[in-house]
Each structure stands twice: as C-alpha cells, then as structure tokens.
Design a protein that fits this description.
The protein is α+β, with helices and mostly antiparallel strands. It has one domain: Alpha-D-Glucose-1,6-Bisphosphate, Chain A, domain 4 (2-Layer Sandwich). Helix content is about 30%, strand content about 25%. Strands 1-7-6-3-2 form a 5-stranded antiparallel beta sheet, covered by helices on one side. Strands 4-5-8-9 form a 4-stranded antiparallel beta sheet, sandwiched between helices. The longest helix is centred in the last third of the chain and has 28 residues.
Length: about 250
C-alpha cells in the first residue's frame, strides 16, 4: 500500500513538469533545449552562467533585448505581438497589460516543474512566473524578462531516507493537488506539502553556501534557457509572424 501511495505522490509532483500555462515551450522541451546549450551538469552550468549574469536593483534575474524591425510601423508591430501573446499564453489572466497607444504588452504566466529534486529529507518541485514586458516603437521592440523568485512545492519527508507516507496520510485525495505543483487554496489537509518562495538572489550560484544548491542550479539554468526561448519567439513573431504567412499581399 505504501508503494502505491508513493507512486501517487510522485505522479502528482511530476505532473507540473508536463504542463505549463505558457506554451512557448513545455518543461520537457525546455530541459532538452537547456541540456543541448549548457550541458546536463547543472552545478557546473549554473556556476558558468553566474559569471555573466547580474541581478537588477530589485535583486531579480532580468534580461533585456532590443529587436530591430526596419520598415515596420508601431501599429504593425503591435498587431503582430498582440497576436503572438494571445495565441501563445492560454491563461486568460496572463496578459496583465495590453495598451496599443502606449505600445506596451505585459505578460505574467507560469511555467511549471522546471526543476524537480529529491534530496536527503525532502523533495522540491520548482516553478517560475516570469514577467515579460514588451515595449513597441516605430521599427523596434524591446523585450524585458524578469524573475525574482522560484515557486516551490516542498514535499516534506519525501526524500531518499524520509518516509513519504505515514498512517495519518493513508488517504486517496492527493489528486486534489494542482497539476502545477500547488495545493488547492486553503487546503491544509496534507501537513507534508508546503508552498514556498525562494528569492533567487539568496540562493546558489549567487550565494555559494546553499543547502539547496542542486535544486537551484537546475532552476537557474532552466530559467535562463526560458528567457532565451522567449526572446527567440518574440523575434520570430516580429520577423515572420506566427504561422509565416501574415503578409500584406492577400
């Protein structure tokens, strides 16, 4: 019976890695992309990235890129990027600002299960909610991507030497945990599941001595890789549209 419940909890925690509100890239594809670009030794990859990354004044991980679009008007660029944003981010609440006159689109949408680490005592599933700000002018677009925290689902005593379940947890309502690694709001029935936020600035590789080093190494690399994916997709939408046939001659 204990093995059955162990499998159930594993499936719940892993579920976040298979679904993401932001469909720019699923977590599994993002991991493949990150490994191809940075290797699969997460500690080394994070240490190498730390040499070129700096935190902004709010101690957030922030990236910015200006994409030139010669010959395209502000209105044309807005239409293309509004189309991209609404087609890409399925969560209706993801687009938090969409101002055509100001030429600004702001998106905040989660990508779930970017890292999953089983430690000695506990297990951690990491998700992120980047804020993506797109500023539009005549012939150019500026994209700013910012992440301040890792969103953590901590499964206490689910580590290598911890017992995942005890008699008090012998129940079948574990499927009530959201697939994105979050408990149902107000659900305090499982005392072993905790939602936490870890500030990126206070963890490895920005802090050398960190007992969450392995978890945060992969989380950093995946967060960085996702920023690259976002920039690439925005640039593709600017230059070629979403489906590649949105020209003016129709």
């Amino acid at each position: 019976m204990k093995k059955i419940f162990c499998w159930m909890l594993t499936a719940i925690l892993a579920c976040g890695a298979m679904s993401a509100q932001a469909q720019v890239m699923k977590a599994a594809d993002l991991e493949k992309y990150a490994k191809e670009k940075y290797g699969d030794k997460w500690l080394d990859a994070a240490a190498n990235l730390a040499k070129e990354l700096t935190l902004d004044k709010n101690e957030s991980l922030s990236y910015q890129q200006v994409i030139e679009a010669p010959g395209k008007t502000k209105a044309q660029l807005y239409v293309a990027l509004n189309y991209w944003a609404t087609a890409t981010f399925k969560d209706k609440q993801a687009i938090t600002l969409n101002d055509k006159d100001a030429g600004c689109i702001i998106i905040s949408s989660s990508i779930d299960g970017i890292a999953d680490h089983t430690g000695t005592l506990n297990r951690y599933v990491v998700s992120i909610t980047p804020v993506i700000k797109i500023d539009i002018k005549e012939g150019r677009v500026r994209v700013t991507y910012t992440v301040q925290n890792y969103d953590i689902l901590k499964a206490e005593a689910a580590g290598w030497i911890g017992g995942i379940l005890d008699n008090s947890s012998n129940r079948t309502d574990r499927q009530n945990v959201y697939g994105d690694g979050k408990r149902l709001k107000g659900d305090n029935t499982d005392r072993r599941l905790y939602d936490e936020q870890w500030e990126i600035a206070k963890h490895y590789p920005f802090v050398e001595k960190d007992n969450k080093k392995r978890t945060c190494s992969k989380a950093l690399v995946m967060t960085h890789a996702y920023s690259n994916a976002i920039m690439d997709k925005v640039e593709e939408a600017i230059k070629n549209g979403i489906v590649g046939n949105e020209d003016e001659d129709w």
